[in-house]
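As described in the Methods, two query proteins were run sequentially through the folding procedure within a single session, without resetting any intermediate state between them. The first query and its resulting structure tokens are shown here.
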Amino acid sequence: MTKNLDSNGLQSIADNYDLFYIDIWGVVHNGIKLHEQAIIVLKELLKKNKAFVLLTNAPRPNKTVRNFLKKMGMDQELRDHVFTSGEAALKYLKKYFLSKKFYHIGPPRDFDLFNSFENNKCEDITESEFLLCTGLFDDHDKDLIYYKKLFDIHINKKMICTNPDLIVDRGDKRELCAGSVAMVFEKMGGEVIYFGKPHPEVYNQSIDNNNKKILAIGDNLNTDIKGANLLNYDSLLVSNGIHKNEIKDKGIEKVSKEYETIINFIQSDLKW
């Protein structure tokens, strides 16, 4: 049974945990502005000397996301807790794929992910040894059929996906993410190596999480909550995120069952 924390707040359970994994997009901000109540939560966790990671499926290095949050007005003492799926992927790429030619699928704003090996980037997919997917091309950001045609004769190449999210809400606008492209590739028979929630690597790289009682907080059942379930962490779903309409129409218990997830706690928005 999922417990609602809207009345008592996160403070009512915070002392039960040593470490908090907190999603950024949809929990701390909406892509346009910070959520003030969520910032209060982060500051209260600092006061209590509680460890937390702002864990995001952003396909960019930590420093890029920290700069983005700085522009939004987030204090450095909070920004320092950011860890991205892009950072986790970057370590892997440098170790195993550094000398291999790749074809990048995603917008130009993601180029900083591979600055250190950009000479290996191919303009022609036929010349590549693997595919690096960080998102969708700006001129094909709604058309998944385009990617099916693009992959047709390249399905034998491995794809590295740096953001398993299928969708994200930017303000009131819903957008497709890299995970949607990777899903197309997988359904065609391709092999995808994922970095980001719900996959364990990003959690384990971000901080020493051994022998800790952990709460994972997020708005995405497929990534934040499934990741918590896979790793036996407790979970808190922020219900005013991407599943808002589903929860309103069906109720939390039915939605949880449909996504095959266990949700320990729920809040409309993250509040102390």
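Immediately afterward, the second query was submitted; its sequence and tokens are:
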Amino acid sequence: MPDDNLLQVRSIAAYDDNYIWLISDKHCAVIVDPGDAAPVIKYLTEHHLTLTAILITHHHADHIGGVANLLTWCASLGLVKPVVYGPAHENISVVTEQLIESDIVSISRPACEFTVLDVPGHTAGHIAFYLNAGDRQHVFCGDTLFATGCGRLFEGTPAQMVDSLNKLKNLPDQTLVHCAHEYTLSNIKFALAVEPQNQDLLAWQQTALTLRQQGVPTVPTTIAHEKSVNPFLRCEESSVIESVKQHQAIKDTHPVTVFAHLRSWKDTFKA
């Protein structure tokens, strides 16, 4: 017989390139970063799932914009109000449970437990949620780490972002990376400008192109994969350092300096 408690993780597309993540068993679901309520409500309705909790990584509108409507929808059905978990160091009015580094979020239905990671940089109080689901590990990292890229520094510093990326980099290699945007193809173009001879990256470009041509998401990837193709996780690799030196004429090769110049380069990069 099928296990009604078996966890499944799926993406729900929103806006032009957002992914809202859903963790569910046969009956209940947790949602991560619902910027838009409509596609979530559609999915929950079609699959007869009850929303029990909402996880928020940071305060940007495309990550929290659907929360209020989801709560209203749950109330209209007479359901128990879902708990909304989010970062303690950001002012998000819809959050009912504020979280900091190492907090544990235990949810009974679906049965799952998340460890909170502080990952500032994209925003000042950005957090991620790490889920050890037994045979698979997952990290829901919002806009901190992308497939073959990382988030812009809107509020944090390069040093903060390097620390945050290293925290994610040090997760088990097989951890699935659930980021919040489909930026992969443009990220790969930049990564190839940095490391044009990276064979893993060249192979990944072909795979990603095929996936997108088929309308299939390129995420999740894995931590191991990101370590082989993502320039922002490779700031200590000689190939990345040399490329940044040629582009920016820097002498200081400290990882934070390399990252800062790499991020600046990406911010103005034209494919």
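The CA atoms of residues 28 and 50 lie 5 Å apart. We note this only descriptively and draw no conclusion about the first query from it.
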